[in-house]
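FW: tagging you since you asked about this chain on Friday. Here's the raw sequence from the shared folder, copied in full. Didn't touch anything.
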Amino acid sequence: MAENNIFIGGFHAVKTALSKASADCLEVWIKRDINSPAVEEIRALLSNLGLKAQSASASNLDKMYGDDHHQGIVLKRRLPATVSIEELLDRCKTNTGTALILILDSIQDPRNFGACLRIADGAGADGVIYPKDNSARLGSVLAKAASGAIDTVPLVPVSNLSSAIVKVQKAGIWVTGACSDDAAPLYSLDFSGPTAIVMGNEGSGLRRLTKERCDYLASIPMHGALGSLNVSAATSIFLFEVKRQQS
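HL: got it, structure written out here
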């Protein structure tokens, strides 16, 4: 069953939600007897929104959040809004910078998916496209890993990823798939123009049709005994190399 409301924790993630998605914020709990400039900043934001934090014990916060890594603050909120691929591509046309889109092909682990969103935010990506029926569920675990990025990076669920890639290409954006087989070294490609990077499933990589739709395939040169990296680590290398070339 899908979550209608999710819990997020940590001062940065809660502050981001209150600042970027205030209409989705429902309730906030802060650990009893905790005082800091970060707490006062959160209380000020809540006051401006007509909300008030509730006091809670550390054990109750742990139960709500699922572990004790909440820094003494937990927010209950609605799921973040998503945008259509048409809206994303329209934004890319009107933005002053060179387009950078991340496409996630069937990422199943919510921690990996959330980490990829956080990386997309850090690299200044315009949005993240993913299949709505074959991806990690957008819930509390994913939001925790994203550390606020669910509200800073446009989320674009699509019914058919292959068709979505075609739309991206028709908008003048070159699509490169991350692949370890029969692929050019990442650093040999020109990413200075509008670019979309496609990252594949944690175990099987890019699906066949996804791979066929890509304009280029690229791999990360590996120099050790292992043949590949975790998908979020690979995403970081790809996106920041694109951003380096686009800057």
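FW: The mean pLDDT is 95.
HL: agreed, and The chain is about 40% helix and 20% strand.
FW: great, closing this out.
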